[in-house]
Amino acid sequence: MALSRRATPRRYLMCSPRHFEVTYSINPWMDPGKPVDTPLAVAQWEQLRDLYRSLGHTVEELAPVPGLPDMVFAANGATVVDGRVLGARFAHRERVDEAAAHLDWYRAHGFAHVREPVHVNEGEGDFAVTASYVLAGRGFRASPLSHGEAQEFFGRPVIGLELVDPRHYHLDTALAVLDDSADEVMYYPPAFSPGSREVLRRLFPDALTAGAEDAAAFGLNAVSDGLRVVLPQAAAGLFGPLRERGFEPVGVDLSELLKGGGSVKCCTQELREPRDLRELRL
Ligand code: ARG
User: Is this prediction's pTM over 0.90?
Assistant: First the structure.
């Protein structure tokens, strides 16, 4: 296993939780009866944004829209691979209007290949990009038909994975890509059906697997630049195993956003340019 890790500079799109609240429940973490401290959510989110910048990454900001409280979970708005943008189509009516805000942003920022999807997909909530594959969750949000749509659009093999635990309703709550120049991931096996678990075992035999406690702390909702892995501080059990593999875990506190059922990765859309362009900037 490679122990000398290398970070590559990333470009992220994030959206401030200025209008974040929990007024509806579309996943088991959301309880509209529980108060949300919006200023605290903003402060925690700003720490994450500033952390990325201090690590040398570029963070773009999407303007939050009043009445769309889940927009802070910017990862759900699109999937960008090789500079090609597959927009989102949300499963729940409460989030449907977020998709247009994302599409508008991409069109206004010079992305030439932007596709408005035919089938339901919630962006990087259910799509994860490794060196060889696009991993694609289904079962709660993304339509299985979106997998074929993504494969055609990106020209990369899409591997469908069945999610079975409602607390892990999006792939990015159960699996994180640790090194996207290779095929290195970490995941929580019980979130997947037996067949999909077997697929993961075959594709990623050396993967780091998380325990129930770290998974419940949203430890798999992590963002890696190839070296630094940003994840919830509370997922304490993952820090040692990540270090053993040569990564540098960086813990953050996004407790307010957990009330919406999201954490680090959910707040972070990655704008993946064609690889040759990325290398030019190194
Ligand atoms: N409340 C949001 C929803 O249920 C949270 C989305 C979290 N985002 C993510 N990428 N998992 O849709």
Answer: yes
